[in-house]
Design goal:
The chain is an alpha+beta fold. The chain has 15 helices and 21 strands. It folds into three domains: 100 residues, 3-Layer(aba) Sandwich (Rossmann fold); 69 residues, Dna Ligase, domain 1 (2-Layer Sandwich); 239 residues, 2-Layer Sandwich (D-amino Acid Aminotransferase, Chain A, domain 1), CATH 3.30.470. It has an eight-stranded antiparallel beta sheet with strand order 14-13-10-11-12-15-20-18, with helices on both faces. Strands 3-2-1-4-5 form a five-stranded parallel beta sheet. β10 and β11 form a beta hairpin. Bound molecules: ligand MV4. The site of ligand MV4 has 17 residues, from β9, β13 and β14.
Length: 446
């Protein structure tokens, strides 16, 4: 097993990875910007290296600085975490070229899934249902017949996209003519590649994703699905497993589809296949070749430490589990708590003057906050994930309500009050929501 792992990330996910390393007797190297010198993951690491000033492009995206830090400290492997360079195939390849182990998928799988059209084509080849759609459409002359074949309403998506950026809806030929150039320009601006493709727009789907673990030696398991429909502006707010919308047979079906495809691909490490689910049909939309923010709810119901498995797999071990040994039990819900105003979501960085995390049976808090910590304004506003496990969904809701009341984060504004409103909302309590419900709920309650 590795002697020393460099964690090329910050905040709660860096601390989460540090925890798995420490439990396995692996030394940790924390890299940090000058804004994160006093962060908890830096305080707990065995070694620390300052890799630059606060802007991500000069620090957490600074490949040369990160590789130099790994060289200086003699790290054996690098864990990219999520965001930043986690799905950058060139970074993964550079890590390996410099003699370090990249704790994640093979660079070619990162690259494949980063191209949303190629990812869909691979999924279709691997027997996974995808949204009816087209390949790249260069201009209106190509887009119009493609749209007619798919049927309106149409969603125009960036091939290099993902996360919802640059998507445009067209409900008629006239709107297609208007939206196509807009989408191409935004794709060019956001992702540096203007290629776009078309899909049938699903009006009221749920967002269901399947957690996969593969060892790259034929072993692949799934850890159930996560319902990530409760989002606003493509930022997830609450995630839960199992999805209130799926029955056991649908769960097994989508799990088996995902596992079969990943086995065929020879996938290594943690990965998540994203689906839209509408009228009892699943449609693959994209795959995330990294650990995800919401991975803890899958850990809570399966008992599998996903980061530990990533480390073991990266070190060449076979998966520690066969599918038959995976028992998904109970229900888990994650509330993402941001340093933002709960009313208008304006960022609220600053010093945390008071801090008390909730506890008790089935309560997990993944956060790097502490009393006196200064939340910097330079990075995304996620400061804590309140993860609740219970034997049933109703037990989770009761426990979540109690834990939210108990959680004290003083000195800055947080979205805890939003979660307290959500946990009492009839549609949420009934599990009766789609990807648009939360934006309506927040808009209505503004
Ligand atoms: C879709 C869709 C509906 N129809 N594709 C959003 C980001 C990326 N994961 C893909 N996403 C979607 N793709 C088709 N054909 C709905 C989403 C979607 C979404 C769209 C608009 C507003 C919020 C959304 C939240 C999750 C998914």
């Amino acid at each position: 097993m590795f002697e020393k792992v460099l964690i090329a990330n910050r905040g709660e996910i860096a601390l989460r990875i540090h925890r798995a390393c420490r439990e396995m007797g692996i030394k940790t190297v924390a890299v940090h910007s000058t804004a994160d010198t006093h962060a908890m993951n830096v305080r707990l690491a065995d070694e620390t290296v300052c890799i630059g000033p606060p802007p991500a492009r000069d620090s957490y995206l600074n490949v040369a600085a990160i590789l130099s830090a790994a060289t200086i400290t003699g790290a054996d492997a690098i864990h990219p975490g999520l965001g930043f360079l986690a799905e950058n195939a060139d970074f993964a390849a550079a890590v390996e070229e410099h003699g370090f182990v990249f704790i994640g998928p093979a660079p070619e799988h990162i690259r494949l899934m980063g191209d949303k059209i190629a990812a869909k084509a691979a999924a279709a080849r691997l027997g996974i249902p995808t949204v009816p759609g087209s390949s790249t459409v260069r201009d209106l002359a190509a887009a119009e017949p493609a749209a007619d074949a798919i049927g309106y309403p149409i969603l125009i998506k960036a091939a290099a996209g993902g996360g919802g950026r640059g998507m445009k809806i067209a409900r008629s030929r006239a709107e297609l003519a208007q939206m196509l150039p807009l989408a191409q320009r935004e794709a060019e601006a956001f992702f540096g590649h203007g290629e776009v493709y078309l899909e049938r727009f699903l009006e009221r789907p749920r967002h269901i994703e399947v957690q996969i673990l593969g060892d790259g030696q034929g072993g692949v398991v799934h850890l159930g699905e996560r319902d990530c429909s409760l989002q606003r502006t493509h930022q997830k707010v609450i995630e839960e497993t199992p999805s209130p919308a799926l029955g056991p047979d649908e769960r097994d079906r989508i799990g088996a589809l995902a596992v079969g495809a990943m086995r065929e691909l020879g996938y290594r490490s943690a990965g998540t296949l994203e689906f839209l689910y509408q009228d009892r049909e699943f449609f693959f939309i994209e795959m995330n070749t990294r650990l995800q923010v919401e991975h803890p709810i899958s850990e809570m119901v399966s008992g599998v430490d996903i980061v530990r498995e990533q480390l073991r797999i990266a070190d060449g071990a076979a998966l520690g589990y066969r599918q038959a040994e995976i028992r998904l039990s109970g229900h888990a819900i994650e509330c993402r708590i941001n340093a933002e105003s709960p009313d208008d979501f304006r960022p609220s960085p600053g010093r945390v003057t008071d801090y008390h995390a909730p506890g008790g049976l089935g309560v997990r808090v993944d956060s790097a906050l502490y009393q006196g910590y200064v939340v910097p304004p330079f990075y995304d506003s996620l400061i804590s994930k309140l993860v609740i496990h219970g034997r049933s969904r109703s037990e989770c809701l009761m426990r979540l309500r109690r834990a939210l009341e108990e959680y004290v984060i003083g000195g800055i504004e947080t979205t805890i009050p939003l979660h307290q409103r959500l946990v009492d909302a009839r549609a949420f309590i009934d599990g009766d929501y789609d990807i648009h419900w939360l934006e309506r709920f927040v808009g209505r309650n503004r």
